[in-house]
Design goal:
By secondary structure, this protein is of the alpha/beta class. The protein is about 50% helix and about 15% strand. The chain has twelve helices and nine strands. The strands form three sheets. Strands 1-4-5-6-7 form a five-stranded mixed sheet, sandwiched between helices. Strands 2-3 form a two-stranded antiparallel ribbon. It has a two-stranded antiparallel sheet with strand order 8-9. Helix 6 crosses helix 8, helix 8 packs antiparallel against helix 9 and helix 10 crosses helix 12.
């Protein structure tokens, strides 16, 4: 099948409101149902903008992965997901920039509206085009790290800054990010079954706990769509292909993993045979060199490349 792009697969998975709400409630709100799926609305992911301050002007082109807004109380909250397959050592700065551009975008919308109405403003309000009682809406972001190895990057802006004396650190404005690692997802309680399944199986695969998968999923088929997400997270083209080939839209993960394990054993045996052949060839080459045979003739007989023969020749001189 045509190779799937991980970012497209993951964005599509999180566009579902129930999955999105389950993620935020588990990771940000410690399992409390603060975000309700029925109240979520899709929001434009584009946060690109022109930054212009006292003669300085720059266009920043940025787009978030998945963004939704939800009513909470009288106003609303903007919620965003950023997906990372690899550790990003500037991630707190990147999240801070995305959030700042989101606030800047709303500020410009409010200021344009204020200017358009033409209502009288105070001198102070005119400077910013914001009325004294205008307010921006909160933005909350989650970074999902899908990597097999632990995240070893910064968790806040402060982690990216050089060591500071206490006097500086006390007044420094930090910016923390909400990080969720799939390899540690078992510590959260996800109300949505799809999210639980994807994270649980992915974590088991990373930890090679295939017995656990066998115990829990032996008699359960999961949606092929979820298997594709699992294959994307664990970087397994085999699982993705197995899921894509299933009729009826379901797949048994135990069967898929058995085939994957069998193929891995076959590949290991194949590599071992090749390594054994290479090692025997090198032993033959060494014997030929010690007998003073011509290197071109050795290459013709054994099929070993010239660079390897020359390297082995130098070994005989040591």
């Amino acid at each position: 099948m045509e190779k799937l792009k991980p970012d497209v697969v993951l964005k599509d998975f999180w566009r579902d409101n129930e999955r999105f709400a389950s993620l935020f409630n588990a990771v940000v709100f410690q399992g409390t149902e603060v975000i309700h799926p029925e109240n979520l609305q899709e929001v434009d992911t584009e946060v690109s903008n022109v930054i212009e301050l006292k003669g300085y002007k720059e266009t920043l082109e940025k787009s978030r992965d998945v963004v939704k807004k939800t009513a909470y109380g009288v106003d609303f909250v903007i919620l965003g997901i950023e997906s990372q397959m690899k550790t990003h050592y500037a991630m707190p700065l990147r999240v801070m920039l995305y959030d700042a551009l989101g606030y800047w975008k709303e500020y410009q919308e409010i200021s344009r509206s204020n200017r358009k109405t033409g209502d009288k403003m105070t001198v102070e309000e005119f400077l910013s085009a914001l009325r004294k009682d205008d307010r921006l809406h909160p933005i909350i972001s989650i970074v999902i790290y899908y990597g097999e190895n632990p995240w070893d990057g910064p968790l806040s802006l402060k982690d990216m800054i050089v060591d500071m004396p206490d006097k500086i650190a006390d007044v420094f404005s930090d910016y923390k990010m909400n990080l969720m690692q799939v390899r540690e997802s078992s510590k959260y309680h996800f109300s949505n079954e799809d999210v639980r399944t994807v994270f649980e199986i992915s974590e088991y695969i990373f930890e090679e706990k295939f017995d656990e998968i066998q115990k829990k999923y032996e008699n359960r088929n999961i949606k092929a769509e979820l298997a594709i997400v699992i294959g994307t997270i664990t970087e397994s083209a085999h699982i993705i292909n197995q899921a894509a080939e299933q009729e009826g839209g379901f797949i048994n993960m135990c069967s898929a993993l058995e085939r994957l394990e069998k193929r891995g054993i076959e590949q290991g045996i194949e590599r071992g045979i090749k390594q054994g052949v290479t090692q025997r060839n090198e032993e033959i080459v060494l014997r030929m060199l010690r007998k003073g045979m011509d290197q071109a003739l050795i290459k013709e007989i054994t099929g070993v490349d010239e660079a390897t023969i020359e390297e082995l020749r130098r070994e005989t001189l040591m």
